Amino acid sequence: MSLALNQVTVSVHNLPEAVAFYKGLGLHLIVQAPQYARFVCPNGLSTFSVHLHDDGTFPPSGTTVYFECVQLDQQVASLKSRGYVFEQDPTDQPWEWHEAYLHDPSGNRICLYHASENRVNPGWRLPESKAKYFLTEARFTNWLNSIQTALSDNDAITFQKLFAADVRLLESPFAAPVFGSGKVKHHWDKAMGLYANVSYNLIGVQGNVGYAQLEGTWGTSESVVYSAMLALRFNPAGLCTEVIVWGGPTISRGVMLKNVSGVFSRN
């Protein structure tokens, strides 16, 4: 069974008042009807909605809705300057989250917080859960940034610290696998010598596998790029144990867009 929490609905007394409140928080309104409105979070991954209660009144809810803000202190200061009233200013909590609390006009309790990796990987996480649910987008992004820096600086020590000693790299179904962090570094050095402006961009995480896109300019030409998909498997220690690469030279986005715009301009 695959489950993902990405939508929450709360009851409100007054719909226009609620819409104004949540738009002011920074949510984007995407659906509105006489008794219902739905918002999408700025990152586009989750939705939140409000529904007009049938009786107009209802007892306060004991549920708290959490919205994460990377720059929490600045966000709270901005909201307070626009009239939002907080019952608690940003505070470091014992559970490793930075939190601020307020209520919407209907009394629903809202927490604006920043936790980053501590949301799913706090210091007090259950040991038995770490082996199965340890890889997060934040952790994988940090790993991608680290390998990009290590390659740019030709830092073999840092590079090898990112991989298990027996890491396996498979560049295509037709190529012989490369085993060991040292040989992977040597192979990557030879490959990167062909590319300039190499970047690694997060696609997503599923279980203990992270997916990313690698791009770089091919040779001295700016019209051809090397674009590849990477699947990287990790162990609970955060070391990469397997790399699978699919990709090859292709026309750059800029050249492709220029060609496409030329087609549209002629029709």
Per-chain topology:
Elements: E1 7-12, H1 15-25, E2 28-33, E3 36-40, E4 47-52, E5 64-68, H2 72-81, E6 86-92, E7 98-103, E8 109-114, H3 127-130, H4 137-152, H5 156-161, E9 163-170, E10 178-179, H6 181-192, E11 195-206, E12 209-218, E13 224-234, E14 240-251, H7 253-265
Task: Give the number of DSSP strands.
Answer: 14
The Rg value, from CA coordinates, equals 24 Å
- Shape annotation: elongated
Low-confidence stretches: 259-267
Sketch the major β-sheet.
Answer: 6 strands, mixed
- Mean model confidence by pLDDT: 82
Query: What share of the residues does DSSP label as strand, in percent?
Result: 35-45%
Estimate the helix proportion, in percent.
25-40%
Describe the structure.
- With 267 residues, the chain is of the alpha+beta class.
- Helices cover 27% and strands 38% of the residues.
- Strands 10-9-14-13-12-11 form a 6-stranded mixed sheet. A 4-stranded mixed sheet has the order 1-4-3-2, covered by helices on one side. A 4-stranded mixed sheet has the order 5-8-7-6, covered by helices on one side.
- The longest helix has 16 residues, at 137-152.
Give me a quick take on this structure:
Helices cover 27% and strands 38% of the residues. The chain is built from seven helices and 14 strands. The radius of gyration is 24 Å and the shape is elongated.
